[in-house]
Amino acid sequence: MGISAEAVVTRPVLLDTSFFVDLERETARREVGPARRFLPTLARRPVAVSVVTIAELLEGAANEDKTFASLQRFSIQGLHATHARKCARLQRGSARRMGENDAWLVVTAEAIDADIVGADRAAFERLGERYLRFR
């Protein structure tokens, strides 16, 4: 039994930092680049952001308060002890460890049955078609 096209279209997406960074740059330059072209494909999908991504974005933000406020429109996904156990198992069982923040994103996406949108296929290769590369 396969997954219906409707289920894929409505499955949540978890946005990686790379997507937000490109989207911000494209918006500031008033250009339509890969991130802005990808946005319409997310129109019917619930959009989530991990606290890990929020931390990465705030670390590089020129205006932390403005950046934090702009992220409030998304479903914010926290981390819990269950995530920690899954993350540890993922890293321990892998022949090639992921970056810690990428591992947190993977277990968060699994917890909410979401696809990850980003630009680093190598970091998320284990997700297969559950990784949506926007550029």
| Count, helices | 7
CATH topology: the name is Rossmann fold
Low-confidence stretches: none
CATH class: Alpha Beta
Helix content: 40-55%
How much of the sequence lies in strands comes to 5-15%
Distance between the termini: 31 Å
Give a brief outline of the structure.
The protein is an alpha/beta fold and 135 residues long. It has 7 helices and 5 strands; from the N terminus they run H-E-H-H-E-H-H-E-H-H-E-E.
Q: How does the SSE layout of this entry go?
A:
Elements: H1 5-10, E1 13-15, H2 17-29, H3 34-38, E2 47-50, H4 51-60, H5 64-70, E3 75-77, H6 81-92, H7 100-111, E4 115-118, E5 131-133
Parallel strand pairs: 1-2, 1-4, 2-3, 4-5
Could you characterize what this model shows?
The chain is an alpha/beta fold and 135 residues long. The chain has one domain: 5'-nuclease (Rossmann fold, 3-Layer(aba) Sandwich), CATH 3.40.50.1010. 48% of the residues lie in helices and 13% in strands. The chain has helices spanning 5-10, 17-29, 34-38, 51-60, 64-70, 81-92, 100-111; strands at 13-15, 47-50, 75-77, 115-118, 131-133. A five-stranded parallel β-sheet has the order 3-2-1-4-5. The radius of gyration is 15 Å and the shape is globular. It starts with a helix and ends with a strand. 22% of the residues are buried.
